[in-house]
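hey so u asked for the seq, here:
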Amino acid sequence: MTFQEALQLARGPAVATIAGWMISALIEWWPEFQALQSKRTRVLVYILLCMIVPLAATIASIATGIFGAWTDIANTWWPAIWAGIGAAGLGTLFHAFVPEPVSAKATSAVK
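ran it, structure tokens below
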């Protein structure tokens, strides 16, 4: 994988994966992160990381001359912003939804 391909992935489909890796690193190296009582704080950290990852990849791609321009908002910045919003929204919804155990539903249906 080239550096250009890595930046393109970080600006799109790999946003949530990279944010997850960063949270894993936070858990390993910063014990206070695990001790946070509020789930909202942890979710906020995830959302911020989902926004930072594509924006940082965009900054790196512009700074190295690989892709985009500082002033090209429509083709450079908006795709990165929407990738971050999409990853944060889907990741938050996926982890916020906690279904009831299937066995409990099956047991109550039999009674």
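The longest helix spans residues 39-63. The CA atoms of residues 74 and 80 lie 10 Å apart.
lmk if thats what u needed
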